[in-house]
Specification:
Keywords (chain A): ER-Golgi transport, Transport
Protein name (chain A): Trafficking protein particle complex subunit 2-like protein
CATH topology of chain A: Beta-Lactamase
Number of strands of chain B: 46
Distance between the termini of chain B: 136 Å
Family (chain A): Belongs to the TRAPP small subunits family. Sedlin subfamily.
Strand content of chain B: 25-35%
Largest sheet of chain A: 5 strands, antiparallel
Distance between the termini of chain A: 17 Å
Number of domains of chain A: 1
Helix content of chain A: 25-40%
CATH class of the largest domain in chain B: Alpha Beta
Helix content of chain B: 25-40%
Oligomer: heterodimer
Radius of gyration of chain B: 54 Å
InterPro entries (chain A): Longin-like_dom_sf (IPR011012), Sedlin (IPR006722), TRAPPC2L (IPR044760)
Shape of chain B: flat
Structural class of chain B: alpha+beta
Structural class of chain A: alpha+beta
CATH architecture of the largest domain in chain B: 3-Layer(aba) Sandwich
Number of strands of chain A: 5
GO cellular component, one term (chain A): perinuclear region of cytoplasm
CATH topology of the largest domain in chain B: Rossmann fold
Largest interface: A-B, 26 and 27 residues
Number of helices of chain A: 3
Strand content of chain A: 15-25%
Shape of chain A: globular
Radius of gyration of chain A: 14 Å
Strand order of the largest sheet of chain A: 2-1-5-4-3
């Protein structure tokens, strides 16, 4: 697996009721799409557990195994943002990870501001795509 | 090939070994009891185990070690756990005053000498004397003990005396503590010995061995913190020397590192520091799980060996973790034993896969080598059986080749082991509420079952996971492909179609796999489908499966796929096109919209819509779920890709008019698409969508097209009914007989006969409706009503009817009157509803209070005294009060009956807002002296609305008041009926003692300028219980008019002034005095 900068492989946005709203994969994850998606998916179990006790939106690293690490952020409305990185990557500092999630959250807000967007349905948004591209390219 | 099992010793806590000798439990009951007390080990007692030996012959002897190379001997821990005792304890029955004392001394000396000679490994010898008698002189005992020790060449600390006549359990407890201390000293000595051994060249093997031994002996010494330190040092040496390991020794080093990691984690959990244990395990994985597996004995075998070792490491930690959880540790979803079982299963699956690949790439046809190169027992952890003992190079190479060969022959995929790990992980994830991780394990279990050649089991697991709607898309497609392969291999027609119709769904911009299209089309045409994954199956297997498919499809096949919760190749929605309620004689239009979500057109043999009727609550009527009330069908439809096709149907309710009732709902229950011909040979498949799936589109609130669409319509009686166009909201007073003017209109277009209005309590929606009573034709109040309205009504006719009623509750009440009528020419009685709302309020507001005789309101009244009761009635409407009755409580007596049991001389007429007051004097006589609030009773008011002839009797409660104790009651009697100026007037004050004791008091008469006075101005009186005392004074008024009444003051040392002041407050405040000049006749 290619292991660039922050090692971000997948970004997933999941609604409060666990509806999959948006997900993006980096080019590096193209050969392990299923594994990365499955890892992001199962990490939501831990996110759900942590979110109930969290005192801030950013939950930090919530789950890891020998291949991947998962970071999470939960908005005030219960929307879950999950970022999966390669476990062998250098990783980012908490402040940098917070900034990434803030950026994602901002892009998400822009996306759902579309008056034709139906809440709870999958999102198709250039804002999110652009934001994810930038994160993967970092 | 499997990781080396450490042995049974590793599972429990190490215990010190103590050997007992000299006891005869078979023939001596006392010895038996003593031995049983030692055998009975509980956690609160010193951690050692005892074993009875017959004599010195059973003591372990030193064995000569073979000079072999290795790190940790497998049997070394067992040496101290089961063979080398810390203590040998000799028990002897010997009293101090034994008649053959000298002979006994010789015997003891001989026994101890013999044991001492046999004991090796520096175990300690202790002697316990069991005595039945005690000596009365302690010095004698000491003397004998010294003599005994001298003869047996032992110190006095090694001798213990137990008096068997006393409490044996306390002696055993003390002995155990003493044994424990001696045992610890033994292990400490051993530790010193081991530590003093020199390690040439700081050899890592020897360092690790030494640290492990020190750790283990510290554990035996019950010093777990020192043990932990030594184990950690040994582990660090292992980790630091990783780069220097020889490839042939990888397995041995990893085995030792794994053992040390296990011991350290075990102690961390024991010390209640689970975070440290988890951190160490994570570090252990980082340090040892990602290295090179090596290529000894071969690259493939080393890889398999490495994966199995990693799996074992994770499994062992999970076991430790689970044991800690059982002992009270709290785990969480992020870190729990399941996490490590999951890791273990992953590595185990990798090992299975590598074995499968090895078997596939290097098939071996030769027989197993003889002699077996793997038969040798190994001395060290991780040692290879073919490397035991010194061998010359040629033999070693030959053995090594044979061993590789034997290992490859012995290797097999362990599917059961993998499934066990997965099941254990699954249970843990369930326990800690991790549904997604649980489903991940199900996916992996499916893979394991497929690898084990059980595709039907795998299919069950994958389909179960696929039913969850929130799976990531790529994962869903992967699983669908797996399910397709599995169902194809098992020749499962329905399941194959279930997978294909989901795989056929693509986005308009997406591309469809032509293989899926081909499989779908071939199955529809009853032809053998193409093999979805030709590479996974051998040619002969493909042929066999194709033959099975052919056989299957030669017969008629019927199956139904429930697509309600699936994302399939067709998107279906349905709705009624009428939102208004419908009558049973109507046809209801409905629309079904089908959108093909795949890239090629499909022709269906038909679309069927099923509807059923249900109660207004939505409860289905009838038992069979699949039994539809209405069915409509359209044959031969072709759907074009991504183009919505609308199909319009009409449901004729007349067909089921007999079972439809007003209020029922007709609901679209199912839409089915059919392929094939049911009557002919071939495949007939049905794809069904139930009501929930059909209404899903309507959840889109912003979809304007969906506005007004609904899956249900309500059935109403459209024949028409009787309506009320008169009073609908009536205001009335509580309990009055009020009247509502109903104007009933025939809204049907038919002539009606026998029109009636009925009120039935059981039909009411509101429970408060039963509080309304109706006046029937006999002027009686009834709970239910049946009122004839008209014998005949033509269409549009209006009939006025007064409805008299009485509401017994405050507030608003909704009534549902039932209209019943017959349509001329028909026998059946039709029914309708007429709604009325009645709002009732109180006729008046009541306020009552107690006053003194002087008209001053009081909050509490004096017992045995007279007061005034005043009731104010404030009218809420124009009413007339015709009579009032006082229903006073037991503690109150009406001092003067007015109006009682009689009508008022003339009715009191009150307009809305007027207030009328009624007063009556009351005497309070309470037997109790408590100062609780007491009710004064009720008042009955007879009233009627102005102009009405119906009188209403209302009972209203009077106020509550506190009755306070009055030790002395004071009344006054005036000598003449009329007081005249300058004429003597006798005034008598009557004092009555209400208590049971004599009261001393002083009375004084207050002089004023308006009266001349004759009598005692100051007087000391003694009030006897129950005897009235009269104080008479004669006064002469010097002025005329309303004068202040002559005042008496009373004081008593035994009664508070405030109480006496209250008693005096009831005396008249003023007196009216006539002028002198006029003659006055009484």
């Amino acid at each position: 697996m290619i292991n660039p900068g922050n090692g971000a492989l997948c970004i997933s946005i999941v609604g409060k009721e666990n509806a999959r709203l948006w997900s993006g994969l980096s080019d590096d994850a193209s050969r392990v799409v299923c594994e990365v998606e499955l890892f992001a998916h199962v990490s939501l179990d831990i996110v759900d557990e942590r979110a109930t006790k969290a005192t801030e939106n950013y939950l930090g690293q919530v789950y890891s195994d020998h291949l991947y690490k998962c970071f999470a952020y939960v908005s005030s409305t219960g929307v879950k943002f999950v970022l999966v990185t390669d476990s062998k990557s250098q990783g980012l500092r908490d402040s940098e990870m917070r900034a990434i999630f803030k950026k994602l959250h901002h892009a998400y807000c822009n996306a759902i501001s579309n008056p034709f967007y139906v809440v709870g349905q999958p999102i198709k948004s250039k804002h999110l795509t652009e934001a994810a591209k930038q994160i993967f390219a970092q | 090939m499997d990781p080396v099992e450490p042995g049974d010793w590793v599972t429990g806590r190490p215990q010190q070994l103590i050997l007992l000798t000299g006891l005869d439990p078979t023939n001596r009951p006392l010895h038996n009891v003593l031995l049983a007390a030692f055998y009975n080990r509980t956690p609160d007692r010193p951690a050692f185990k005892v074993r009875l030996i017959a004599g010195d012959a059973d003591l372990p002897q030193k064995t000569k070690k073979k000079k072999t190379r290795g790190i940790l001997r497998k049997e070394w821990p067992n040496k101290y756990l089961n063979h080398v005792p810390a203590l040998v304890v000799l028990f002897m029955d010997l009293d101090w005053d034994h008649p053959s004392w000298s002979e006994k001394l010789l015997e003891a000396s001989s026994k101890t000498e013999s044991l001492r000679n046999s004991i090796q490994h520096e175990s300690r010898l202790l002697v316990v004397l069991l005595q039945e008698k005690t000596t009365s002189f302690p010095s004698e005992g000491e003397e004998k003990a010294n003599e005994f020790c001298h003869h047996c060449q032992m110190s006095s600390k090694q001798l213990f005396v137990v008096n068997t006549a006393g409490d044996l359990s306390s002696h055993v407890g003390k002995l155990e503590l003493a044994f424990h201390e001696h045992a610890q000293a033994f292990y400490q000595a051993k530790i010193k010995t081991i530590r003093s051994r020199s390690i040439p060249n700081n050899s890592p093997e020897l360092l690790v061995r030494q640290m492990f031994k020190l750790g283990f002996l510290s554990e035996l010494r019950q010093d777990t913190h020192t043990a932990l330190r030594n184990y950690k040092l040994a582990y660090d040496h292992c980790q630091n020397s990783q780069n220097n390991w020889e490839m042939a020794d990888y397995f041995e080093w990893r085995s030792v590192a794994g053992l040390l990691n296990y011991k350290i984690c075990e102690l961390y959990f024991l010390h209640n520091t689970p975070r440290d244990a988890i951190t160490l395990m994570n570090k252990h994985m980082s340090a040892f799980f990602y290295g090179e597996p090596g290529n000894y004995p071969s690259a493939q075998l080393a890889g398999i060996e490495y994966s199995l070792w990693k799996s074992k490491q994770s499994w062992q930690f999970a076991e430790l973790f689970e044991r800690a959880v059982v002992n009270g540790l709290t785990a969480v979803a992020a870190v729990n034993p399941g996490t490590f079982l999951d890791y273990a299963s992953t590595h185990f699956a990798t090992a299975n896969r590598m074995i499968r690949e090895l078997k596939a790439t290097s098939p071996i046809s030769a027989s197993y080598p003889n002699p077996d190169p793997l038969a040798s027992a190994v001395d060290f952890y991780g040692q290879r059986p073919w490397r035991v003992g010194p061998l010359d190079t040629a033999t070693a190479l030959h053995l090594e080749r044979a061993a590789i060969f034997a290992l490859q022959l012995r290797l097999h995929e362990n599917h059961d082991g993998l499934m066990t790990l997965l099941s254990a992980a699954s249970m843990q994830y369930k326990k800690y509420g991790c549904p997604r991780l649980h489903r991940k394990i199900m996916i992996e279990s499916g893979d394991a079952q497929a690898a084990a050649g059980k595709p039907e089991e795998a299919l069950k697991l994958w389909t179960h996971v696929l039913r969850e709607g929130t799976l990531p898309e790529n994962l869903r497609l992967t699983l669908l492909n797996k399910a397709l392969w599995s169902s194809y291999c098992n020749v499962l027609l329905k399941e194959t179609m279930w997978s294909v119709i989901q795989l056929l769904r693509v986005e308009p911009s997406g591309t469809l796999d032509p293989l899926h299209q081909e499989i779908f089309m071939k199955i529809c045409d009853a032809k053998t489908p193409a093999n979805p994954f030709s590479t996974q199956l051998a040619e002969n297997q493909v042929q066999h499966i194709s033959m099975l498919w052919k056989q299957k499809l030669e017969e008629s096949q019927f199956f139904t796929v429930n697509c309600s919760k699936l994302s399939t190749f067709v998107q279906v929605s349905a709705c009624f096109l009428q939102t208004e309620p419908v009558s049973v004689d109507m046809q209801v239009p409905l629309r079904v919209t089908l959108t093909l979500q795949t890239s090629f057109p499909i022709t269906f043999s038909g679309v069927r819509v099923s509807a059923y009727h249900c109660e207004s609550s939505g409860r289905r009527i009838g038992t069979a779920d699949d039994q539809a009330t209405f069915n409509v069908f359209r044959s031969n439809i072709t759907l074009q890709p991504f183009t919505p096709s609308h199909f319009y149907f009409a449901i004729d309710l007349k067909d089921s008019a007999s079972i439809l009732k007003e209020g029922h709902l007709v609901t679209i229950g199912r839409v089915s698409l059919e392929i094939g011909d049911r009557t002919q040979k071939g495949v007939f498949s049905t794809f069904e969508w139930d009501g929930n799936a059909l209404g899903r589109e309507r959840l889109n609130l912003l979809d304007l097209k969906a506005y007004g669409q609904q899956l249900s319509v309500r059935v109403v009686n459209m024949v028409g009914t009787i309506t009320n166009i008169g009073d609908k909201n009536i205001d009335c007073l509580l309990a009055e007989i009020a009247s509502a003017k109903l104007r009933l209109k025939n809204e049907t277009n038919r002539e009606l006969s026998d029109v009636r209005i009925e009120f039935k309590r059981s039909e009411q929606a509101s429970s408060s409706a039963s509080s309304v009573l109706f006046v029937d034709d006999d002027n009686e109040l009834r709970g239910e009503l049946e009122l004839a309205v008209a014998s005949s009504m033509k269409p549009g006719d209006e009939v006025d009817r007064a409805l008299q009623f009485s509401s017994q509750l405050h507030g608003s009440v909704d009534l549902l009157l039932e209209s019943a009528f017959k349509i001329s020419g028909e026998k059946e009685v039709q029914k309708g509803r007429v709604a009325l709302t009645i709002t009732s309020e109180d006729p008046f507001i009541v306020r009552s209070q107690v006053l003194t005789l002087n008209g001053i309101p009081v909050t509490k009244v004096l017992n045995r005294s007279t007061h005034l009761l005043k009731v104010d009635l404030k009218s809420n409407a124009d009413i007339e009060i015709t009579r009032i009755d006082w229903l006073l409580a037991d503690v109150v007596q009406n001092a003067l009956s007015i109006y009682s049991e009689n009508d008022l001389p003339s009715p009191d007429v009150l307009l809305k807002g007027d207030v009328v007051s009624y007063c009556t004097p009351i005497d309070i006589f309470s037997q109790e002296d408590s100062e609780d609030e007491k009710p004064l009773g009720r008042m009955v008011v007879f009233w009627r609305r102005c102009g009405s002839s119906f009188s209403v009797r209302s009972t209203v409660p009077l106020c509550r008041t506190v009755i306070s104790t009055c030790p002395v009651s004071i009344n006054v009697e005036v000598g003449a009926k009329i007081a005249e100026m300058r004429k003597p007037l006798l005034i008598t004050y009557v004092l009555l003692n209400n208590t049971l004791e004599v009261i001393e008091a002083t009375t004084s008469f207050d002089l004023t300028d308006t009266f001349m006075f004759s009598g005692d101005k100051l007087r000391s009186v003694r009030l006897l219980p129950g005897v009235p005392l009269r104080i008479e004074v004669t006064v002469m008024a010097l002025a005329a008019g309303r004068l202040s009444f002559p005042r008496l003051t009373i004081r008593s040392p035994s009664i508070a002034d405030s109480i006496l002041l209250d008693a005096l407050r009831n005396l008249p405040a003023t007196i009216f005095v006539l002028p002198l000049a006029k003659e006055y006749q009484s």
